Amino acid sequence: MRAARYYDNRDIRIEEIEDPTPAAGEVLIDVAWCGICGTDLHEYLDGPIFCPTHDTPTSLTGETAPVTMGHEFSGVVSGLGEGVDDLAVGDHVVVEPYIIGDDVETGPESRDYHLSPGMNFIGLGGAGGGLAEKIAVKRRWVHRIDPSIPLDQAALIEPLTVGYHAVERSDAKAGDVALIGGAGPIGLVTAAVLKAQGVTVIMSELSELRRQKALDAGVADHVVDPRSEDVAAKVRELTDGRGADVAFECTSVQVVLDTLMDALRPRGVLVVASIWGHKADFDMHRLVMKEIDLRGTIAYVNNHPATITLVEEGKIDLAPFITGKIGLDGLVDEGFDTLINRNETAVKILVSPSGEGL
């Protein structure tokens, strides 16, 4: 089968590799669609980060580079390993793409398996990936979805679950006002979850396309261009002088972090959802004087079932966020290049590893 293989910084190759076979307790999936994530771009530009090197394996899989990429994907079950009897060939599924130690409790009550030592992600740290025609995944990480959800939209359930967990971390509730810094994929899906839960959403974003996308998709009540408006002043105007109850930093840009601090009300909650590749110049005095509650969020933990339900019940429409579809051969030149150099023109670009659906 064909797969996108990560060799090193700025070195991703489309190659022929052996088809996987499902071991006991595993599910074989024909990949339908796989999204390109900001983390993939970080690996390409600045990595390896989650990916292994040629000499240093990831801590749990033992794999060294090259590894297959892709962790935002949907597909159809095509085979079942020994002992898997609660799925059937033909089921539509998405994957919670974790690589986690066998000794870690990952049951439905766990709230911290995503923070366990050595945690990594399928499609980054090894164990196959969604930027391939097929993948074998442990049953624990495979989630059945209703076939009424189109498989291209289903590929966005993984980033949507990131947004769901970020909202969960914020303790936002119906009637609150949220400010989101950045209307990229994670900002937009976070907004979608907030709107589904009755929160008023204000988004700050430079890109006209992404601001319009937030409005057209119905996930933002107000959008602000930070080049032409004072974002914090606009938030106070919209909240009768109070400020936002919660804010989500989705850019890893210093000026955005500063703006969110300004726009939050006293005792507001600031959730950092982006991956920072550098240290922030954080104004600790402002945090203290406003009693801001600063929280980090990473990925998800037992959030997929609730997120899938939101989509199946029609409370979130993922279709508006898909702005491009490409084949595996266009991954770098059409996909990565667009998202790195012209990211104001796109939101989520999906890849069809088999070429079907293009």
Description:
- Helix content is 26%, strand content 26%.
- The protein is of the alpha/beta class.
- It folds into two domains: 2-156 and 318-352, Medium-chain alcohol dehydrogenases, catalytic domain (Quinone Oxidoreductase, Chain A, domain 1), CATH 3.90.180.10; 163-296, NAD(P)-binding Rossmann-like Domain (Rossmann fold, 3-Layer(aba) Sandwich).
- The strands form four sheets. Strands 3, 5, 6, 9, 10, 17 and 18 form a seven-stranded mixed sheet that branches. A six-stranded parallel sheet has the order 13-12-11-14-15-16, sandwiched between helices. Strands 2-1-4 form a three-stranded antiparallel sheet, with no helix packed on it.
- Helix 7 (254-263) links the parallel strand 14 and strand 15.
- Pfam families: ADH_N, ADH_zinc_N.
